[in-house]
């Protein structure tokens, strides 16, 4: 059975927090556990993080933790009776002065005073991910007056988006800042920023992480219309991040579902071109919240993201609160494996006509070119400090597994998200130079990833712990006398 290249991010929640469930999720193929800071207490996240680390260590595998910040989602306040039903043609007001817990059939409070400055007559507001839609008739000093155009129930704390984007709350709230400190405490490998507007939002998140002494890599969730308005905006966000998430829930609401598929493909390809990671998220297996099997449309959605060479596909409510979290991960794993058999998953024209900028990058890309074109090769080994060398390798389409060998636990967790990359603990520090290759290959042999006579490509630098130092590529035949 080939190793799966496309990684699986599974959100943990009430349905997936026992040690047994977490163990079953890891066995099913979870590579990254997502802790959603929009729900749950800090202690619940601490406990889940502890369990993931303990179970993964027990199994000898590497699972990354991704903390997803809640962000500045603009929400309505509460209704006196918890919920109302709106019909087409109803007049409804969103008020910045109405008491926050006393919404009724005509009006609900909102604790985002800027709403009146952000809205214009004629705007379309989407509540609860578009389940209820209203058109703005007029904007007063303390309220926005609307007419309902899509009917539905509306309950406490539902989110508000504007068609076309432009509701402009700052990206990092006080809660997000506290959660960044929590992510640092839990040594999370990844932190995702919700609703970033531009590079400055990501820069701020990065400086807060650094201040909290976190080494986490930053993921920008692409979910505002402004973020995909043009390539300059998108590239700016990608450049300021280590990876991006195609956050299809809010993005789909803001730009409309018809635009979403093309934009998803575009985001995946732009991120990869810039040597960044990309996660495809939201509703991928939605029906599996209550069904043990995905629909054919869901199968196709996951397979298409895998064919487009996303690093990872993601589960939200399916694994956090659904009835079949383990089955959902299993289904994703088998669908990805199926898609990866397709020839377009294995051939690459990446950067064929471009020059490279750095020595380590040149070695990494040369290794993939050699591996893809020399049929005896069955594995690529990259000795890595930060994960940079295997990151560059994994931007290239290939059928070959890339083994990232590192002594650094953060790096081993980090590479769990990279497409086609397998983490292996390996410390070159005390290995005599003449035994290094043999021992590195021995690690793969031990796990059955290579067999005698296979060819293996190995990259490394001259020192054993210098990030950025990769400068050599070696072709080795397994079982030879290696020196
Ligand atoms: C390890 C290897 C070095 C190599 C480095 C590359 O430390 O022992 O020989 O130069 O990784 O690290 P990077 O973070 O750039 O992938
Ligand atoms: Mg979102």
Automatic annotation (TrEMBL):
Residues 4-329 form the Pyruvate kinase barrel domain. Belongs to the pyruvate kinase family. Its cofactor is K(+). Its EC number is 2.7.1.40. Pathway: Carbohydrate degradation; glycolysis; pyruvate from D-glyceraldehyde 3-phosphate: step 5/5. It comes from Halopseudomonas phragmitis. The keyword Metal-binding applies. Residues 361-475 form the Pyruvate kinase C-terminal domain. Keywords: ATP-binding, Glycolysis, Kinase, Magnesium, Metal-binding, Nucleotide-binding, Pyruvate, Transferase. InterPro entries: Pyr_Knase (IPR001697), Pyrv/PenolPyrv_kinase-like_dom (IPR015813), Pyrv_kinase-like_dom_sf (IPR040442), Pyrv_Knase-like_insert_dom_sf (IPR011037), Pyrv_Knase_AS (IPR018209), Pyrv_Knase_brl (IPR015793), Pyrv_Knase_C (IPR015795), Pyrv_Knase_C_sf (IPR036918). GO terms for molecular function: ATP binding; kinase activity; magnesium ion binding; potassium ion binding; pyruvate kinase activity. It catalyses: pyruvate + ATP = phosphoenolpyruvate + ADP + H(+). This is Pyruvate kinase.
């Amino acid at each position: 059975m080939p190793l799966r290249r496309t990684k699986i991010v599974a959100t943990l929640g009430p349905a997936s927090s026992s040690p047994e469930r977490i163990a079953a999720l890891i066995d099913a193929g979870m590579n990254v556990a997502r802790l959603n800071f929009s729900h749950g207490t800090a202690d619940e996240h601490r406990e889940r993080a502890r369990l993931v680390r303990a179970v993964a260590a027990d199994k000898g595998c590497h699972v990354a933790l991704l903390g997803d910040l809640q962000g500045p989602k603009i929400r309505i306040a509460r209704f006196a009776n918890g919920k109302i039903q709106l019909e087409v043609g109803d007049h409804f007001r969103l008020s910045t002065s109405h008491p926050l817990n006393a919404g009724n059939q005509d009006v609900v409070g909102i604790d985002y005073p800027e709403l009146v400055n952000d809205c214009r007559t004629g705007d379309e507001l989407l509540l609860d991910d578009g389940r209820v839609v209203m058109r703005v008739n007029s904007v007063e000093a303390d309220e926005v007056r609307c007419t309902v155009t899509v009917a539905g129930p509306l309950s406490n704390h539902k989110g508000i988006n504007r068609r076309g984007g432009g509701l402009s709350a700052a990206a990092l709230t006080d809660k997000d800042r506290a959660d960044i400190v929590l992510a640092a405490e839990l040594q999370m490998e990844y932190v995702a920023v919700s609703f970033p507007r531009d590079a400055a939002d990501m820069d701020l998140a990065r400086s807060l992480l650094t201040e909290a002494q976190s080494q986490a890599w930053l993921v920008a969730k692409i979910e505002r219309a402004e973020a995909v308005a043009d390539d300059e905006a998108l590239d700016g966000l990608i450049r300021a991040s280590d990876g991006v998430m195609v956050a299809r829930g809010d993005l789909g609401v803001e730009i409309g579902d018809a635009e979403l598929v093309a934009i998803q493909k575009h985001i995946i390809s732009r991120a990869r071109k810039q040597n960044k990671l990309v996660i495809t998220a939201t509703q991928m297996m939605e029906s599996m919240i209550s069904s043990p099997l995905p629909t054919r449309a869901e199968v196709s959605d996951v397979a298409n993201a895998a064919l487009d060479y996303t690093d990872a596909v993601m589960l939200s409510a399916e694994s956090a609160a659904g009835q079949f979290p383990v089955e959902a991960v299993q289904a994703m794993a088998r669908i990805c494996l199926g898609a990866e058999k397709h020839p377009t998953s294995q051939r690459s024209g990446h950067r064929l006509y471009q020059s490279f900028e750095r020595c380590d990058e040149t070695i990494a890309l040369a290794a993939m070119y050699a591996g893809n074109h020399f049929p005896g090769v069955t594995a690529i080994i990259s000795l890595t400090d930060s994960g940079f060398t295997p990151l560059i390798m994994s931007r290239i389409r290939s059928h070959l597994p890339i083994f990232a060998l590192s002594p650094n636990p953060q790096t081993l967790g980090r590479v769990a998200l990279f497409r086609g990359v397998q983490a292996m603990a390996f410390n070159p520090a005390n290995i005599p130079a003449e035994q290094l290759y043999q021992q590195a290959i021995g690690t793969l042999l031990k796990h059955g990833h290579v067999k005698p006579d296979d060819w293996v490509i190995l990259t490394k630098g001259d020192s054993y712990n210098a990030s950025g130092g990769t400068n050599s590529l070696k072709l080795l035949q397994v079982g030879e006398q290696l020196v």
